[in-house]
Hints:
The complex is a heterotrimer of chains A (527), B (121) and C (447).
Chain A: H1 76-87, H2 110-116, H3 119-122, H4 134-151, E1 155-157, H5 163-180, E2 188-192, H6 198-205, E3 209-213, H7 223-229, E4 234-240, H8 252-261, E5 265-269, E6 289-291, E7 312-314, E8 326-330, E9 333-337, H9 358-394, E10 411-413, H10 425-434, E11 441-442, E12 452-454, H11 462-480, H12 485-488, H13 501-506
Parallel strand pairs in A: 2-3, 2-4, 4-5, 5-6
Antiparallel strand pairs in A: 1-7, 6-7, 8-9, 10-12, 11-12
Helix pairs in contact in A: 2-9, 4-9, 5-6, 9-11
Chain B: E1 2-3, E2 8-13, E3 16-21, H1 23-29, E4 32-36, E5 43-44, E6 49-55, E7 59-63, E8 68-73, H2 76-79, H3 83-86, E9 95-99, H4 102-106, H5 111-119
Antiparallel strand pairs in B: 1-2, 2-3, 3-9, 4-6, 5-8, 6-7, 8-9
Chain C: H1 8-18, H2 23-26, H3 48-60, H4 83-89, H5 92-95, H6 107-124, E1 128-129, H7 136-151, E2 155-158, H8 164-176, E3 180-183, E4 202-208, H9 220-228, E5 232-237, E6 256-260, E7 276-280, E8 293-297, E9 303-307, H10 314-317, H11 330-367, E10 373-374, E11 382-386, H12 391-400, E12 407-408, H13 409-412, E13 421-425, H14 432-446
Parallel strand pairs in C: 2-3, 2-4, 4-5, 5-6
Antiparallel strand pairs in C: 1-7, 6-7, 8-9, 10-11, 11-13, 12-13
Amino acid sequence: MSLNSVGRPTRPVSDVPGQGFASLTGGRGLLQDEALIFDRNSWDGTGVDLPAPESGADDLAGLVRVEPLRLPGLSEPETVRHYVRLSQKNHAIDLALYPLGSCTMKHNPRLNEKLARLPGFADLHPLAPVSAVQGALDLMDRLAHWLKTLTGMPAVALSPKAGAHGELCGLLAIRAAHAAAGQTRRRLVLTPTSAHGTNPATAAFVGYEVVEIGQTADGRVDLADLAAKLSDEVAAIMVTNPNTCGLFERDILEISRLTHAAGAYFYCDGANFNAIVGRVRPGDLGVDAMHINLHKTFSTPHGGGGPGSGPVVLSEALAPFAPTPWVVHGAEGFRLVEETEAEASQAFGRMTAFHGQMGMYVRAYAYMLSHGADGLRQAAEDAVLNANYIKARLSGVMSAAFPDGPCMHEALFDDHWLEGTGITTLDFAKAMIDEGFHPMTMYFPLVVHGAMLIEPTESESLAELDRFCDALLALAGAALAGDAERFTSAPHLAPLRRLDETLAARKPRLTWRPQEPGVAPAPLAAE
Amino acid sequence: MRFTKDHEWVALDGDVATVGITAYAAEQLGDVVYVETPEPGRALKAGEGMAVVESVKAASDVYAPLSGEVVEANGDLAGAPETVNAEPEAGGWFARVRIADRAEYDALMDRAAYDAFLETL
Amino acid sequence: MRYLPLDAADRRHMLGVIGAKGVDDLFADVPAPARLSAPVDLPRHAGEIEVERELSALAARNRPAGAGPFFCGAGAYRHQVPATVDHIIQRSEFLTSYTPYQPEIAQGTLQVLFEFQTQVAALTGMEVANASLYDGSTACAEAVMMARRVTRRRKAVLSGGLHPQYAAVTGTIATAEGMEIARRPAAVDAEADVLAAIDSETACVVVQTPNVFGTVTDVTAIAEAAHAAGALLVVVTTEAVSLGLLKSPGEMGADIAVAEGQSLGVGLNFGGPYVGLFACREKFVRQMPGRLCGETVDAEGRRGFVLTLSTREQHIRREKATSNICTNSGLCALAFSIHMTLLGGTGLRRLAEVNHGRARTLAGALAGVPGLHVLTPRFFNEVAVRVPGSAAALVEDLAGEGILAGVPVSRLDPSAGMDDVLLLAATETTTTGDIDALVAALSRRIR
């Protein structure tokens, strides 16, 4: 078998010490326990006042629900309290440094939220006549201009809804270009071992076979291996740059030269564009397609897991195959190229209904205007400076995965330094929670053992960086001094202790379901 | 019982081989939460993927150690995947295969050879 | 540069700790020919005043739905979203948190997702639901590919009532994966047309109710026919409010139910972000795309929630994942869930009845305009109407009068041969005055 063991336990150790003091009711100060909305017998309630319907549904005989819809309804104050209590169990970038490598948890300016809520954007129907949406189309056009200028690429497809959706868009454009050129033999996509999981998943989704490219000892694409694997059967390479180890691919120009010489296209995973925006244009590196995560580089909020937005910039060769829709500016103002128009004859299709993530376009564009060309460049420099500062401060104690040379926007450590302590990367990360920080990205990239990938972003002040480094050094000191208990049973101070992920996966309970009407389900119990 | 370098075990009874993963593999995987067993009637070639075993954080392919036809899958694992951890080399078996070529079985490692192989890892 | 905390002294100090002479040292790995020595040719940074001025000017060149009589639908509907919803989703802990990969400090998001999944499962009448997808159209494409994994067949039959852009998205993505798409001709009331195209290679049949022309269909017989042929039934709903009144996809035998959830909590947003609802029968759960949240316990035995069954997903399964999807539409799912919690089952039913009542009034008024023909035989809150001449031209004309009169079919599907068909929706936000204004303007134009 392919022994795919990721070194982290997924069920908590039992017999962990409690918190010492217990309140009489189980309350914990400001941290309110909050039941599910289904636990409170509000099956007939509602928090919305509506008029009486002006007519019945007699015209829909036989088409109406037979079973009443059993969903609880809460009054407005109960609803507000429910969600505010829940919110207090979340970590957030507004609370403290959120150093998830590869995720780019930077400050989300509230001006952008305000502007996205202007009725002219938020209350605008996607299929209103184009004469009624000229400002929206103009904004999309301006955003496109900024994205093209910042990347040095001639075209952009705005509509993909997230990074992975952008990858799909890029590969579909590549496929269409090969098909148009009669290059039907090309069935392989090369991607480094360190790639994001979305890269091979997307390539396979489009029907390509994935071939991995090796990595050198200094964390870069192995050029010799790439050259050996390139052939007239290769459709594209997918390379992240800066890569997932937080390093710039020094040989990037040679990578793109070799790729093009083999007749393949260069797809760049732009997840880490935030490290180089304003200092490097991917178009100058020979990139043919690259998605841009607006929710990373251009600071649209992550929202607990989306919505994102993943526009894809395209080279001359791929631009004709971009999906509909797109905006064009003519004598009579802006219009949308939507379906089957002659000018879209080579478009590979459509990624989504309507035109993509307008709400994210407004936020990203406001962010770009605020920073300007100079500020975006400064932000990239500060992001890189912050990561190198963390790397410098922690390297004496923790083991950097690639100690030589600078990193880009994230600092990568391995678990070599924890050897013999009985503490894993997971344990160390969970102990960070007790110190008030969100853990870094763990066990990714896969090429580094027990990886800890730290991305501070440019949003952190020197004081906050020092507070973070001091906390990690204090933890590292405790780990090396043999205080394993602090780690293996961490977190102690979070709203919940370590959760039993094994139980969740073995006995999946994905919805609240009464055992019989009106009877709450029995609590789950650890095996 | 015979073993592969990919950590599968095979027990032969007549021409029917019972296949599972070794105690070492089960230990390395951690808590097994799901097993996708092959459908009876499926023809297997040695070395191809015949099952998938999942822990919470990883999915691993189990390769057919021998060629043949699946005659039975261990249906009990659907409700009790933890059996793979509790008794990997007994109740945690994955499938029974009617083998095509006895020579393939004879070519596999015996317990001593497998133990020696584990020492090298 | 108000978003950047470091000052020049900080930067000098930090470079000293790093042992670098200047920030250029940190970019030394960039090949010299690719280094930009100065900012690109775009405007320099700007203060809040300038940024707000530019964006406000752009917004002012759009006509929002609330500016006058408004009847657009076709997959995006205007509803009253309670003020509470937007207040809560702007809380820092929801707005500025990441995917809940560390469950101990993400129980807020996780419990919301568990509640959301339960709400979606109940609404669609299915056993399980995921934590949301990008939107209804991509959810539709994912459903088709999931059907392929379940049945190991390669053909999908799409009804002529499926939203044309959903069909286009599904066609783009599923054919790339090697599927064959059989789309039936556009038809106002012919969901059952799919029956003729079902064969032994059919992985799934995709129908929509209410369909893009507003027609409500009981698809139970289609489910039976699909099942008899070993195919799955995918039921699409683009107006989530209709699920409060109409038979649920699960009641009618659907195997997978997908819907656009934008109507609840999210708003129009010029088409995005929206929230895709995705639900199915429990036996297919391991073939589902997207994130799933599940219940468990912590080390002290307390109930808690985690992301689970992740081995289906790209970050673990890589090229063998069920989908390449990484994000969901978390904040929109939260908005949907809050709105649903405020409504409750009772309130959603009432809201749906109000919508239906408004639409009956609208349809009655349109039927009274000489030259107009209401085509939709059974509708929820949207009808297709035949107009004399081009529907698109009519819409542009009325927009000039400040009335957004609906969506011409030609905008969605120019090849449908329905250039004279207009889709009009009414919701609880539509007033009698709006309908009167529309009817008066139509009567003038069509005369």
